[in-house]
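User: Hey, quick favor. My workstation is busy. Could you predict this chain's structure for me?
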Amino acid sequence: MFKQLGLALLTVIMCSCSSLPQSEVYSANSKGSAGNPKEIVFIHGMFMTPDNWTEWQKYFTQHGYKTSAPAWPQHDKSVTEMRDPKNYDALAKVTLEEVLNYYRQILRDKKVKPILIGHSMGGLISQILLSENLASAAVVLDSAPPRGVFIVSTTFLSANWKIITPFASKDKPIIQDQESFADSFCNAQPEAEQKRIFQTYAVPESKRVGTGPLTKAGSLNEENARGPLLIIAGGEDRIIPARLSYKNFQVYEDTPGYTEFHLVEGKDHCLMLTPGWESLAETSRLWLEKQLVK
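Assistant: No problem, here it is.
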C-alpha cells in the first residue's frame, strides 16, 4: 500500500505542464526605458550552430531589424566540419564562462544595447547578459535554467544524461546520434522532420558548457535593474521541460524589471526550427515592440 502511495506521489511530482499557466507576468517596470534599438543578437544553444537562426534573421530583417548570430567559440564551422574528430579536442575545452565572455565583449563593443534572442543554453546566456545590463531586452526559448534552479523529473534526467553523467570524461565532446537527438530534441516531430533537423543542424558539444550552469558562471544578477524578459516554453520539451522553464520564471518574482512567461503547447526543444516557428517569431517581435517604447 505504501509503495503504491509513493508511486502515486511520484507521479504527481513528475507531472507534465498541464497545471502551468499559459501566460503569467511579474511586472516591476512595464516598459523598457531606452526604446527599441532595432538590433538583435541571436544566441544559439548546445549541439547547434548559428545556422539554426537563419530563418529568424530573415524574418526580423524584413521587419526593419539589424541582426547578427555570432557563433560560440569553436562553433564557427560547418556542421560537417564540426563533426570531424580532428576538431574534438578544441571543442571539448570550451567552457560556459568562455562563451559568456565572448558575448560580453561583443555587446560592450556596440553603440547601443541590442535585443537578445536565445535558445536553450543560449537562453541562459541571454538571461545572464540581460541581468548584467548589457542588453535592452531578451526573448528566451526553452532556456537552460540558471544556477540553483532544477526539477525532479525522469524525463529531464533521461534527455540530459549525456550532459550530466559523472561517468563521461569532460575531455571529449558529447556526440548525439540521430536516435538520441530525435528523442530528446525534436520528439514532437514526425520521423522525416527529425531526420532533417539532425542532418542539417546537429553538432557535437562540449560537456564543460553543459555543466556550466552548475557553477558560478551560471548565476544571475537578478536583483539588478534590467530590460524586459520573455520566457517561452515548449509544452512537449524534454530537454527543458515547461515546468523547469516556469521555475526559471519564478526566480524573477519581486525583482526589478518586467518578466513574462509564455507556454506553447505541442512544441518540443526545436521549436525555433519546426513548422510554426513563424508564429513564435511574430509573437516575439510584437512583444518586443510593445515593451520597448519610449
